[in-house]
Amino acid sequence: MEERYPDAEPMPLMEKLSFEKALVGMYVSTHPLAHYRQQIRQRGSVSLTFLTEVPW
């Protein structure tokens, strides 16, 4: 016999990410700042990987 579950509204993204981080210890579906990636790059920020490659 197949169980049927009631239809539910999709969980808001930030709530989903919060649960992922709490349960798994990392973000699984996306990163909270992924939506802002382009704006962050336009403002001159760099990735941490780049900073490890700079000869200090």
Beta-strand percent range? under 5%
Helix content bin: 40-55%
Gyration radius (Cα, Å) is: 18 Å
Enumerate how many helices there are, as a single number: 3
Oligomer: single chain
What report would you give on this structure?
The chain is an all-alpha fold and 56 residues long. It has one domain (13-53). Helices cover 43% and strands 0% of the residues. It contains three helices and no strands. The protein has helices at 13-24, 37-42, 48-53. The chain is elongated and about 65 Å long. 0% of the residues are buried. The model has no long low-confidence stretch (mean pLDDT 86).
SSE arrangement:
Layout: H1 13-24, H2 37-42, H3 48-53
Looking at this protein, list some descriptive labels.
0% strand, 56 residues, single chain, mainly alpha
Outline of this structure?
By secondary structure, the protein is an all-alpha fold. The protein has three helices and no strands.
